[in-house]
Write a structure and sequence with these properties.
Elements: H1 4-10, H2 14-19, H3 21-40, H4 50-60, H5 64-71, H6 75-78, H7 87-99, H8 104-110, H9 114-144, H10 155-182, H11 187-213, H12 218-239, E1 242-248, E2 251-255, E3 258-261, E4 264-270, H13 277-298, H14 303-311, H15 317-338, H16 341-350, H17 362-395, H18 405-444
Antiparallel strand pairs: 1-4, 2-3
Helix pairs in contact: 3-10, 3-11, 7-9, 7-13, 8-9, 9-10, 9-13, 10-11, 11-18, 12-17, 12-18, 13-14, 13-15, 15-17, 16-17, 17-18
Length: 445
Amino acid sequence: MASAAEQLAANLNFSAFSKAGELKKRIWFTLGALLVYRLGTYIPMPGINPGALAEVFRQQSTGIIGLFNMFSGGAVGRMAIFALAIMPYISASIIVQLMTTVSPHLEALKKEGEQGRKIINQYTRYGTVLLAAVQAYGIAAGLEGQQGVVVDPGWFFRLSTVITLTGGTMFLMWLGEQITARGIGNGISLIIFAGIVAELPRAVAGTLELSRQGALSSGLILAILVMAIGVIAFIVYMERAQRRLLIQYPKRQVSQNRMTGGESSHLPLKLNTAGVIPPIFASSLLLLPTTIANFSAHGGGPAWLAAITTYLAHGRPLYMVLYVALILFFSFFYTAIVFNPTETADNLKKYGGFIPGIRPGERTAEYIDYVLTRITVVGAIYIALVCVIPEILISYAAVPFYFGGTSLLIVVSVTMDTVAQVQGHLYAAQYEGLIKKAKLRGKRR
């Protein structure tokens, strides 16, 4: 006999979707917000020569700037007002979250609940403004170093660039928060997702043009397509993988003739608890120093800036090593932030639940932490392999970054997370409909 959840899932169809008014409002709001974001990636900054900029970007698009362009949805290539995208916010989030582990003040705020979280978010916003301003000034100085790109170089251009790019990043940060609160899915992840997907047709067309010109063989393109399909299937399989810990609840006598409890459930531990955060954080940290260095080195800057650009170029050994190291680090770090074994064990003990063979309390927390650490090792290696192996292969074939492991992981993971939230809203709407029908039947009786 099918369970109640399975029966409910079987009844989900287009009619159930049409009745979910709240879900439709959220979807339309999300689509409208993403449309505003895409329009902003086509609004150019003032004082830029588009022709000269296109030539400079064409020469540098195969390096770290091309990767930055992917995350910004093509805004870097057009030097639009959203050229910095959401990366300064992600970098600020990394710094603040790292600080919570070493700063007693931030750690105390983290334990204060919702009020403390609001203060930490405010610190993150201040950090975003600072990082965005620094990166924007570096971009402005770098653009001035490129011959003919800036129409009227000077402090006015630098100041207007800093204000424009910083304002664009703050607007995207606010837009992402609005999507999370009033739309569907995680707003920041969806903004990155929209940028990658929107530029995908152009990347496909560019790859086919390279094939037509003979720069890429048809066999290589077919191999990349097969690899992309295989990576997508592997990501879906690993993202759905869980380790379920059996939780048992003892029987309790609530009255003389009535017993309650005695049932069992599972505590699901995802293989990849951190989701797409590790590759995004790793890419953001690698982009932060090289954003300024890449432009400054080409504009006749110091020799050490040129060395940074060379050694951290996309596909170089040092870049790959740092990328893998940061992915592994953030996989464990972010998992430790979002999942607290001690808190989980205390909640189980509070409600009488226990893991068979494990003493409630501290021993349960140790066991959960032990299991979580082991599966996080597998999850971190999985993320590193998915992100790095395709990048190594693609770096030697001059294929656009949109076919890389990082972009595929982001697209697939964000899609799965958004679909799960849509299903959750459909379930809620279905339950509300069942409750209303039950009330109507009760009134008729």
